[in-house]
Amino acid sequence: MASQIETIIRSTVTKAVQTVADFNRDRMKTNDAHPYLTGIHEPMKAERTITDLKVTGTIPADLDGRYVRIGPNPATPPNAASYHWFLGDGMIHGVRLKNGKAAWYRNRWIRSRAVSKALGEPDAAGPRNPAFDTVNTNIVPHAGQTWAVVEAGGFPVRVTEELETIAHDPFGGSLKGSFSAHPHLDPDTGEMHAICYEGPTLDTIRHVVVDKTGRVRREEPIKVQHGPMIHDCMITKSYVIILDMPVTFSMKRLLSGYGFPYAWNPDHKARVGLLPREGKSDDVIWCDVDPCYVFHPANGYETPDGKVVLDVCAHDSMFAESTKGPDSHSVPFERWTIDPKAKRVARKVIDQESQEFPRPNEALIGKPYRYAYTVSLANEGAFVNPATRLFKHDLERGTRHVHDFGQGRVPGEFVFVAKANAKAEDDGWLMGYVIDTTNETTDLVILDAANFEAAPQARVTIPHRIPPGFHGNWMPAT
Asked: Can you tell me the distance from the alpha carbon of 456 to that of 434, in angstroms, rounded to the nearest whole number?
């Protein structure tokens, strides 16, 4: 009976809070241009299929599959006073490569209920989180399917090879709560690991493991405080690494009407948790770290002396000032050495220049590795006014290589794709979208990772601007 009463109380309070938030949101007005709805971020207004694509250079013949990236793109104009970049309707952009050619470009909205209504369509199949079914942050291949994913709310969404929504699908009903924007695939077991959270649940996060057949086999609750926003995690041979940083659920922002209810919280201790892969909440080794915020680690691994190395892009703070998007002032690339005996984290700067979206050769996730690839954020207000450079870090030699795309050419996250029969860690291709702000076009750019500073191997030109998005991946043909 107690649990039933608690559920009723929680439901009533949640509805009351949401009523106040909706009331205040409806009253919010602004005449200012929203930085994530205008300029380089202006949303696309339609879905397109383009088969006549200009190619410059030579597309590697062994690339057979799709490069896809997802990001926010409101289907209807939102209230600019309350809108946050992280909340826009999800839109996928993909290019199909085969036999050295670019077969097509497609962009498609993920069919949330709001998107289906805006497009005059019936609702897509599948169950929904009652509060939130927008999926806009990452798109990953797993168990023979393509999954669009988001944290803290909407269930994963299966999409076709042509990027059409199939269904909202909590892994065949095996997922009981929300999922994550950043599941990490264990290259040895074929399982995906994720740390998941939900806004209304302030005292619990969950370690979720999806087996190689696409079913959840573990959904373990972990005790926390204040409702931390945990965007990403990392795995090593023995641990899942939890990033419990001082960005937490903000009732003040929610009640004020802002759509994104998270803010910098200096009263929340910054810590890193080492969760044994099959461990319980009480088994987590919590290690203190100086206050900062991490969206994305590059990789992590264990050392012979029992420590754990984690390479991250570390923001000095996050959501301390802006209610519209990221607002940190410094984002160096750092190496954290986590000592489970001393329960402390030692931070060392690898590169002081601000940067984000770190990616390694992901066949080495959880293992010692040499190279990390990041995107420069050198400009002030970098997510609104992005820089033009991509970095390759040689972590053994302590050097950095730079690929500068040139004035007005803005790269997003790049992903590493190994060549057939690759013999070295960087024996492969890097690919991602680069916006040409002068011509309002976008190129899918393919670089030779081992010859990083050279001219691109190939560029596939899409004859319109693709707004800056979040995360993408290479999907080999099945």
From this structure: 12
Give the phi and the psi of residue 432 in degrees, each rounded to 5: -175, 175
Determine contact, residues 271/308, Cβ cutoff 8 Å. Answer: no
Give the span between the Cα atoms of 461 and 105, in whole angstroms: 10
- pLDDT for residue 3 is more than 50: no
- DSSP H helical segments within 47-144, as ranges? 113-118
Indicate the DSSP class of residue 152: B
Of 144, 154, 234, the C-alpha closest to 194 is: 234
**Residue 299 CB-half CA count within 13 A:** 23
Q: pTM value?
A: 0.95
What DSSP state is assigned to residue 85? G
Averaged confidence pLDDT in the chain: 95
SS3 8: helix
Q: Identify whether the C-beta of residue 246 lies closer than 8 Å to the C-beta of residue 266.
A: yes
Tell me how long the chain is: 478
CA angle 14, 15, 16 (to 5 degrees): 90
347 three-state secondary structure: strand
pLDDT in tens, 55-89: 999 999 999 999 999 999 999 999 999 999 999 99
Please work out, in degrees rounded to the nearest 5, the angle formed at the alpha carbon of residue 154 by the alpha carbons of 148 and 156: 35
Structure-block tokens of residue 47: 């879905």
DSSP state at residue 124: P
The DSSP line for 281-331 is GGG-EEEE--S-EEEEEEEEEE-TTS-EEEEEEEES-SSSS-SSS---S--
